[in-house]
């Protein structure tokens, strides 16, 4: 009898003890008693801050509802520039349809699309406060010139047209598609996206320009991250300075008959090394065309689509 009573007391004690510790744990983490220092937001498997204290945005590092509500009060416009020349017009439909589903949903977005064939632009239904302006540009017969030429065109666009039209700008490749949220968590003064092939490799693998003759030169052993040329953005002023500098540096290279190893991407990397971005986006914000499982990437938001370069580009 006594033994049974003891067992009962023991079980009751266990129950009360566990409940209390559960309550304390819940209390520390709950919205009622917890705070952002004891909460769950943050990642331990990846760096979410650069050594200069810029955030690196990964799934699990931000509260989407909260950040949406903050930016909702600001009545912002996000200019988004796209280029589709030659056969790259085929990527427009998927890009625009998926962007309407995932890209700054609920915010004012103005796409500026540069193309040599305005007639080939598909009719995609845009949401409320979503605008598309098409601008005709001359065809070019080297894909490298199309890709690099974007810097000068963006520089002029910001200078001549965007001043009172937009608050932020993102410049994105068109051979891409959205699969998940890309929202206001990406906004910042100067924003770079970590290249999906180089986020988990040592620096000596980074394909920076290492020839001293090029203006994109970065000495061996230097550099922070390797950024993709397929997506970057920020405030109008900062992106204007970036595009102007890259365009000037590419002009000097051209005058010296040298082309950086990865074209404007090399110049962008040089720029972002000496002008540190205020925010970095993880490779969730530009994934690879070849699907490969990588533990740290919990969600693919935006990705290159598979393409046959020899077939879509005007030259090799
Ligand atoms: C993953 C990544 O970082 N991608 C970069 C990479 O290759 P990519 O293979 O992604 O370059 P790409 O073929 O997509 O060309 C870049 C962009 O130029 C435009 N385009 C290009 C060719 C053409 O015939 N018509 C046309 O419209 C289009 O917007 C395209 O998205 O290197 C390029 C420069 O070396 C750029 O830096 C890209 O951003
Ligand atoms: Mn691309």
Description:
- It is elongated, with a radius of gyration of 24 Å.
- The longest helix is centred in the N-terminal third of the chain and has 28 residues, at 2-29.
- It has helices at 2-29, 64-72, 92-102, 143-162, 236-255, 263-274, 309-312, and strands spanning 56-57, 77-84, 108-115, 130-136, 168-172, 176-178, 190-194, 227-235, 279-281, 302-304.
- The strands form 2 sheets. An 8-stranded mixed sheet has the order 1-9-7-8-5-2-3-4.
- Helix 4 packs across helix 5 (236-255) and helix 5 packs across helix 6.
- The protein has 316 residues and is α/β, with parallel strands linked by helices.
- Manganese (II) ion binds at residues 173, 175, 230, 304.
Which properties best describe this structure?
316 residues; alpha/beta; binds uridine-diphosphate-N-acetylgalactosamine; binds manganese (II) ion; hexosyltransferase activity; metal ion binding
Terminal Cα span: 89 Å
Mean pLDDT: 93
Strand order of the largest sheet: 1-9-7-8-5-2-3-4
How helical, in percent, are the residues?
Answer: 25-40%
| Estimated structural class | alpha/beta
Number of helices: 7
Name the ligand types.
uridine-diphosphate-N-acetylgalactosamine, manganese (II) ion
Order of helices and strands: HEHEHEEHEEEEHHEEH
Given as residue ranges, the uncertain stretches (5+ residues, pLDDT < 50) are none
Q: What fraction strand?
A: 15-25%
The main pleated sheet reads as: 8 strands, mixed
Number of strands: 10
Radius of gyration (Å): 24 Å
Could you say which overall geometry the principal axes of the C-alpha atoms support?
Answer: elongated
InterPro entries: Glyco_trans_6, Nucleotide-diphossugar_trans
Keywords: Glycosyltransferase, Manganese, Membrane, Metal-binding, Signal-anchor, Transferase, Transmembrane, Transmembrane helix
Cofactor: Mn(2+)
GO molecular function: hexosyltransferase activity; metal ion binding
């Amino acid at each position: 009898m006594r033994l049974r009573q003891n067992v009962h007391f023991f079980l009751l004690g266990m129950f009360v003890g566990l409940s209390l510790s559960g309550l304390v744990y819940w209390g520390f983490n709950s919205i009622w008693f917890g705070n952002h220092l004891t909460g769950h937001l943050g990642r331990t498997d990846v760096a979410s801050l650069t050594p200069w204290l810029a955030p690196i945005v990964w799934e699990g590092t931000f509260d989407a509802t909260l950040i949406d509500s903050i930016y909702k009060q600001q009545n912002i416009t996000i200019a988004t520039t796209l280029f589709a020349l030659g056969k790259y017009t085929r990527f427009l439909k998927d890009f625009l349809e998926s962007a309407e589903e995932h890209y700054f949903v609920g915010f004012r977005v103005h796409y500026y699309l540069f193309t040599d064939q305005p007639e080939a632009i598909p009719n995609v239904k845009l949401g409320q406060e979503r605008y598309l302006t098409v601008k005709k540009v001359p065809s070019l017969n080297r894909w490298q010139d199309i890709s690099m030429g974007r810097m000068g065109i963006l520089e002029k666009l910001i200078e001549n047209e965007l001043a009172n039209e937009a608050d932020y700008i993102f410049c994105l490749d068109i051979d891409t598609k959205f699969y998940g949220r890309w929202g206001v968590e990406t906004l910042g003064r100067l924003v770079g996206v970590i290249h999906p092939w180089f986020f988990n490799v040592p620096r000596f693998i980074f394909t920076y320009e290492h020839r001293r003759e090029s203006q994109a030169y970065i000495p061996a052993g230097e550099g922070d991250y390797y950024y993709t040329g397929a997506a970057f953005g920020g405030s109008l002023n900062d992106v204007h300075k970036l595009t102007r500098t890259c365009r000037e540096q590419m002009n000097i290279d051209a005058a010296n008959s040298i082309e950086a190893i990865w074209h404007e991407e090399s110049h962008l990397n040089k720029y972002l090394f000496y002008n540190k971005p205020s925010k970095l986006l993880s490779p969730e914000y530009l994934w690879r065309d070849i699907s490969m499982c990588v533990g740290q990437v919990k969600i693919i938001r935006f990705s290159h689509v598979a393409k046959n370069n020899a077939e879509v580009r005007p030259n090799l």
